[in-house]
């Protein structure tokens, strides 16, 4: 693919796995806003050609030398953050940003040395270390989660990014408390998963905020109790929320990628103890806020992949789905085959879907 153009279907060669690598047959994949960010929003112009997609699930097809943890036939989820277990960040329970993954070298795609894709004799970049819009991909075993064989791959693929991200932002990063009042900004899959996290953590009141009111009905399914469209008010949205909550919410989670919204999310928190978590990352602009907002006792945090250590967290989330503690089916609004992936991208661009599940190979 090239920036700002529809994706092209091409035959590619996927080399066999090398030492400590596995080759995965991708069965299904979601389409996440971060795929668009790379493609249309022009952030990483030098990472082309690439195979996009980072929210997939599949089956191990073959393993390279030194791989003991996986066998052909295992169900797996590719992870865009590794968990090597050895680095400083893996050893510290406060972080999940392992330094051993592809991301330590480049922010968007793997280095060309590490990619196993070629197309017409030319190397093709591997996006976010995963590239799930492909029948096969090769990954280092430290960035692959083995999951329960009972898991339906066309559902649990969503745990490869968006749902884990939003859910974890609430339960891990914000650490929402029982009886609290929460506000979630942006009701895409990530924001809806944050609503679900607030609900599971025992929040009493959950404000769902979006400029697209079509999203409110879904937010109710995940546990939102109150709905606010900033465009219905002449006052700043933070002011509206402060008035509705007698001084501000206990926790707010920003899932839009808009820096103005990040500020509103901070400012709608109660002074003294309010915690605001930034999840969205589309917009690379700087943000601003008044220091007094923090001096009074608010906390401003960011969340990467919901704070989950990837190899430990994802299999547990799959189990949580199988026992119905975590919802996934309710996020799926569309299904299509890989040759229609551009339709899925259009739906996402225009806010017409929550998640589209793309079938890549038969299960
Ligand atoms: N931190 C991470 O690890 C991580 C991982 C995945 C995705 N993300 C980011 O999370 C964000 C959300 O992803 P998504 O897939 O849910 O996207 P999405 O496009 O489906 O949802 C975004 C929602 O925000 C709403 N919105 C836009 N502007 C708004 C405003 N001013 N006020 C209120 N609502 C507004 C939109 O109407 C939409 O419903 C993206 O920025 C994505 O890049 C972060
Ligand atoms: C994760 O760590 C890498 C270095 O290993 C760094 O370049 C990157 O910015 C970190 N990611 C985030 C979201 O902080
Ligand atoms: Zn994503
Ligand atoms: Zn590590």
From TrEMBL:
Superkingdom classification of source:
Eukaryota
Q: Which Pfam families match?
A: ADH_N, ADH_zinc_N
User: What one GO molecular function would you report for this record?
Assistant: alcohol dehydrogenase (NAD+) activity
Record keyword Aminoacyl-tRNA synthetase present: no
- Pinpoint the Enoyl reductase (ER) domain residues: 2-358
Gene behind this chain?
LOC115407322
Record's keyword terms, sorted: Metal-binding, NAD, Oxidoreductase, Zinc
| Protein's name according to its UniProt entry | Alcohol dehydrogenase 1-like
InterPro entries listed in its UniProt record: ADH-like_C, ADH-like_N, ADH_Zn_CS, ER, GroES-like_sf, NAD(P)-bd_dom_sf
Species source reads: Salarias fasciatus (Jewelled blenny)
Q: Does the keyword Transferase apply?
A: no
Q: For this UniProt entry, what's an example GO CC term? A: cytosol
Protein family (similarity comment): Belongs to the zinc-containing alcohol dehydrogenase family.
Q: Give the protein's cofactors.
A: Zn(2+)
GO biological process assignments: formaldehyde catabolic process
